[in-house]
Design goal:
Blueprint: E1 3-7, H1 16-23, H2 31-43, E2 48-51, H3 58-65, E3 72-74, E4 80-82, E5 92-94, H4 97-109, E6 115-118, H5 138-150, E7 155-159, H6 162-170, E8 175-178, H7 184-191, E9 196-198, H8 202-205, H9 215-234, E10 238-239, H10 254-267, H11 271-285, H12 302-305
Length: 309
């Protein structure tokens, strides 16, 4: 598979704190680490990567270097989260729509290819059905997406929970990342829309057997996601491959192969057809705005480094 629609250059799949520290320096991101990551994808024939973003500029450095490896690389700069909600460890925070719009303008001016928004928390790996944090109100979700679209930028959304998924899709989000704990209505919304779903099975299933979380809960989460993926694809929805590479136990390069295996299990004989269609749909929307091999990387500029938590 030549496409991975969800990676994090700032993370390494082993120790997220150490990896962030290596990139969070006055000199900017660690180029050797980023080249090693890009080489891992090049060896596997990957030609397109979409980054989930970070506030230290690792994703921009990866985009700048990627053409040397024959890779098209799309990056959002920092993910944007509502203060008090999930996302502080990697993103930039806003208190209200006015602050969000100012951040979007700042991201666009700094070269963001798209905007990533954090619309919910993550799964509690020890308690099935529980999403940590809180879900943003529907009206705010609609306004966030509209602000980005008004500025000509597509939107990638970190989303978990049935209501959050449905709200995001109905608001016109371009891609839903993760999308765990869907229900019949939210699956139907995905299937009937142009939104591309990137269900990221690897961050859950690669933890099985590691002792980090309950295997029973992890396997139950995975089984429910398999069922949802199959249903959405069967009803015409767009499903793309993205493994959240850099998340714990999801190594760059290998994670894409793991994800392909999981998706093939979920989708059966039509897997490659469904994934190919979804990947193409996503790539057509999330294109790099900056393609110059020699373009400067604003990784160490203040806008990348601030913590607005």
């Amino acid at each position: 598979m030549d496409t991975d629609c969800h990676v994090h250059a700032v993370l390494d799949g082993i120790d997220f704190k150490a990896s962030i520290a290596a990139h969070r320096t006055e000199a900017g991101p660690d180029e050797a680490r980023i080249r090693s990551m890009l080489s891992a994808y090049q060896r596997r024939g990957v030609t397109y990567l979409r980054d989930g973003g970070d506030r230290w500029g690792a994703c921009l450095a990866a985009r700048r270097l990627a053409p040397e490896y024959g890779i098209e690389y799309a990056a959002p700069l920092a993910p944007l989260y509502k203060k008090g909600n999930y996302g502080k460890f990697i993103g930039r925070g806003y208190a209200d729509l006015r602050e969000f719009a100012a951040l979007v303008d700042e991201m666009k001016a700094a070269g963001a290819d798209f905007i990533k928004v954090m619309l919910s928390g993550i799964m509690d790996f020890d308690h099935y059905g529980v999403v940590t944090g809180f879900t943003l109100e529907k009206s705010l979700v609609r306004d966030l997406i509209a602000v980005a679209h008004d500025r000509g930028l597509p939107v990638m959304g970190h989303v978990n929970g049935a209501r959050a998924i449905q709200d995001a899709v109905e608001a016109g989000i371009d891609s839903v990342e993760h999308g765990y704990y869907s229900d019949e209505e939210s699956r139907a919304a995905l299937a009937e829309s142009d939104t591309v779903w990137v269900p990221t099975l690897s961050p859950i299933l690669n933890l099985v057997g590691t002792g980090i979380a309950s295997d029973e809960v992890l396997e139950r989460i995975g089984a429910a996601q398999f069922e949802a993926i199959a249903w959405v694809a069967e009803h015409g929805g767009r499903v793309a491959l993205g493994d959240d590479a850099g998340a714990h136990a999801v190594r760059h390069g290998q994670g894409a192969a793991d994800e392909l295996g999981y998706l093939r299990n979920a989708l059966g004989r039509r897997a490659d057809e469904v994934i190919g269609h979804g990947n193409a749909a996503l790539r057509s929307v999330f294109r790099p705005r900056v393609r110059s091999l020699g373009a400067p990387c604003p990784a160490a500029e203040p806008h990348c480094l601030r913590d607005d938590g």
